[in-house]
Each structure stands twice: as C-alpha cells, then as structure tokens.
Amino acid sequence: MNKVDIANAVHTKLGGTKVQAEEVVDTVIDSIVSTLKGGGEVSIAGLGIFSTKTRAARQARNPRTGESISVPAMRVPKFRPAKGLKDAVK
Questions:
Q1: How far is CA 66 from CA 39, 71, 73, in A?
Q2: Could you give the CA distance from residue 29 to residue 12 in angstroms, rounded to a whole number?
Q3: pLDDT digits (tens, 9 = 90+) for 1-28
Q4: H or E element in which residue 56 lies
Q5: Helix axis angle, 18-37 relative to 3-14, nearest 10°?
Q6: Beta-bridge partner residues of 76
Q7: CB 3.0 to 4.6 Å from 1: which of 5, 20, 61, 90, for a disulfide?
Q8: Contact 29, 51 (CB under 8 A)
Q9: What phi and psi, each to the nearest 5 degrees, are found at residue 71?
Q10: How many CA atoms lie within 13 A of 16 on its CB side?
Q11: What is the pTM (predicted TM-score) of this model?
C-alpha cells in the first residue's frame, strides 16, 4: 500500500473528492515530518510512536576503494509500534 492507496481508502470511507482525500493524507504526513524535524515525537493511539534517534558518528569503508571514511552523527527517524498493531500483525 502506498500514499495513493491510503488516499483512496480515505476517499472511500469518508466521501468527498479524491483531491481532498490526498490533501488530508499529505497534511498528516507533513505534520509528522515537521514535528520530527523539530525534535518532537508523534504518538498515534493504536498505531505507534514516531520519533528520532541520534546515530553516533562512526568509521565506515567505501566498498569500491576500500578507503576509510568518517560518517558524522545524525538524527534518524524511528518508529515504535503500539501493542495493538503488534497483536494485529501476529
């Protein structure tokens, strides 16, 4: 399932136009992204928690040349599924 499929499901369930459904999906995604960019977390009951985690700086190797390179510390997105989601997928 992709973003278009989710928008179609919203359109089917709630009515309105497909454009409105796509705007709803885009708004939800944009809200999650902007909150994570600001360092916050997003908790959606029954789904899970979106947050960020700081990945430490490390040494890596360029697979083509074998040269050692430095990878800087960075924030990466993280998702912790809710118990209800875990149970539903089992």
A1: 35, 15, 21
A2: 19
A3: 999 999 999 999 999 999 999 999 999 9
A4: none
A5: 120
A6: 53
A7: 5
A8: no
A9: -105, 120
A10: 14
A11: 0.83
- State both tokens at 75: 């924030």
Q: Give the mean pLDDT of 32-37.
A: 97
**Residue 49, both tokens:** 């928690």
CB 83 within 8 A of CB 49: no
d(CA 14, CA 18): 10
Q: Are residues 55 and 63 in contact, defined by beta-carbon separation less than 8 angstroms?
A: no
49 close to 79: Cβ distance less than 8 angstroms: yes
The four Cα atoms 39, 51, 77, 8 give a dihedral, to 10 degrees, of -110
Task: Scan for tokens 């997928």, then name that residue.
Answer: 89
C-alpha torsion 4→6→7→11, nearest 10 = 140
Predicted local confidence at residue 78, as pLDDT: 97
